[in-house]
Amino acid sequence: MHRHLSRRTVLRGLGTAIALPWLESMAPRAASAAASAGPGPRRMMFLYVPNGVHMPAWTPTTTGTDFEIPPTLEPLASFREHLTVISRLAQDGGRAHGDGPGDHARALGSFLTGAHPRKTDGADIRAGVSADQVAAQAIGKATRFPSLELGIERGGQSGNCDSGYSCAYSSNISWRSESVPVPKEINPRLVFDRLFASDDGKGAASTRLARQRDRRSLLDFVREDAGSLRRRLSRNDSRKVDEYLTSVRELENRVESQTATTAPDGTTRPDGVPKDLREHIRLMLDLAVLSFQTDMTRISTFMFANEGSGRSYSLIGVPEGHHDLSHHGRDPKKQEKLAQINRFHIEQVAYMLEKMKTIQEGESTLLDNMMMVYGSGLGDGNRHNHDDLPILLIGKGGGSIAAGRHIEMPKETPLNNLFLSMLDRMDVHVDRLGDSTGRLDALDSA
Hints:
Alkaline Phosphatase, subunit A, two-stranded antiparallel ribbon, 12 helices
């Protein structure tokens, strides 16, 4: 007879706490409890790409379940049953409304808030509470971290970054209040240490130093506790824990391999930040998956780059800056390179979905229980339009979303209507968010 485990069971060691994935022994004992709670909670994640996309290679030509997957989205073909392409959503807060230039700053500042950012490069910034933080404030106490904000480019929190708009708008997707953004973390080592620090937050730095000095693994600190746990588990759960700890060790090795190096210009790259962009993105996405798998958080955001980013993508043969290419002027060669960047980003999403699809939570998977929005606050970067945005909804929301479709909404349907529908599925019920006008009932039925 194996003992029932709490969903909050962790393996403890010096300055260390390793949360566990969902196990059979964590299942609710009563059938009624299982029906109401389910084996895995619903989670939500928002992934942002800057500068819009090349829409002709993004948008399916037909609607419904038989839509043909367009070239940019081809890496997601094997996840078709979890994919909902939603066309014609708009974010009116990104438009000028008399404020002149600054579409990039407004695109990100309004993306999850539905608010029109105040045009200022001073301390009097103002946007609105973002959808992720609405959820975090309502249900964040149920997990160790109310939310997790991740990204690739650091970005400033002050100064002028876009035609008189503060850098805070271009660098942050999450807003705790209309004047307080939530900065993202770009260093995978710091995220890893944060996730596995002891509950009281103490000992993380000393434990990390001990690991580095003695070349020890995080798992060495919880070895005794792990052995005790295995003796209480079924064979299936014991195997699942072993596989999970192996994946943690592999991720730890990848994080630790990112040591400080000296760049050609003589500057030092921050410790733990990979030089290779693909590896940097994948490490951050792996950490997000781990945080969901262990129920350390149910809400996360991830930015592939800051809005208006001019990053080069030489690793895929596109040395030009992303922002410059987005102003393609209908040049076919520039459009082709822009589509390459768009597809590269989608390939990284596919990498993450493959991980989520293999993580079982009872009869479902982590991917089944996810709701992930992927998109941009600009449609065509050349036009700087804030309607007909490139928006994907990925996952089934614990069976509450009829996925596997291309839905074409009426023109000017607020993007925040989608967010309200997602919040409902997280048991967070608010009457309005930003410029929302209602819910997206189209998600409920095929």
